[in-house]
Q: What sequence folds into this?
């Protein structure tokens, strides 16, 4: 997997310049989404009072699991992922029976693909993007997009948010958007026994898309009028032939 590993490192872990107000609100959302589920009114009040001391924050309100942040350039709203959605994954590896809890942290690609496979209705899509964390570091991230309602369900971040706000706060580059049928189509292009256990399906597909995008001029010159399926198959064949 040396070629794929080196390609991965070109995108993963690189810092980005300060992006302005979206980075500031990104940090506030991260903090609130960690503490709101604790339902500690005293702690939430302390957090709100602290954040409202910032010059660009006009108002923060928390009602149950719903939060409103009004700042000098607009308003952002989000909620914690409701139990109704989490419980759809109760029969998966993400549910801890002993503690009656879920663990989605650092498993964004796996939980997104699992949710898509279990609830493959037309309005649900899996998205993989290059996102920016609170330290300004790029990383690959996957989440669910409810197209009809235009909101993002991010199990790893534990938030539900309007897609426009989500893209503004977190997304540096959107790579792949798959509905269930598209997801199955591309899954059939791979034999994952040869692709390494460290790369889950959505992450691997995003790397293939970036690889093809980077090399599309070369491939189009050599093999005109071929589909994306050809390029994915071409890339996978090279990996398999090298015994990776």
A:
């Amino acid at each position: 997997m040396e070629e794929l590993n080196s390609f991965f490192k070109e995108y993963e872990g690189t810092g980005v310049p300060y992006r302005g107000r979206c980075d500031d609100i990104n940090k506030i959302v991260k903090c609130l989404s960690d503490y709101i589920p604790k339902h500690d009114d005293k702690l939430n009040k302390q957090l709100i009072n602290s954040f409202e001391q910032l010059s660009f924050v006009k108002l923060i309100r928390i009602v149950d699991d719903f939060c409103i942040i009004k700042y000098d350039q607009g308003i952002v709203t989000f909620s914690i992922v409701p139990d109704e959605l989490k419980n759809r994954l109760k029969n998966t590896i993400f549910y801890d029976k002993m503690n009656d809890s879920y663990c989605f942290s650092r498993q964004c690609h796996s939980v997104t693909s699992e949710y898509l496979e279990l609830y493959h209705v037309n309005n649900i899509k899996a998205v993989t993007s290059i996102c920016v964390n609170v330290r300004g570091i790029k990383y690959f991230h996957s989440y669910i997009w409810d197209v009809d309602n235009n909101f993002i369900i991010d199990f790893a971040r534990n938030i539900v948010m309007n897609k426009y706000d989500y893209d503004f706060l977190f997304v540096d580059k959107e790579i792949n958007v798959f509905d269930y049928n598209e997801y199955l189509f591309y899954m059939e292009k791979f034999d994952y026994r040869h692709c390494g256990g460290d790369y889950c399906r959505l992450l691997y597909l995003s790397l293939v898309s970036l690889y093809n995008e980077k090399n599309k001029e070369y491939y189009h010159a050599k093999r005109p009028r071929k589909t994306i399926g050809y390029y994915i198959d071409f890339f996978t064949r090279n990996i398999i032939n090298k015994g990776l």
Residues 194 and 241 are 10 Å apart (CA to CA).
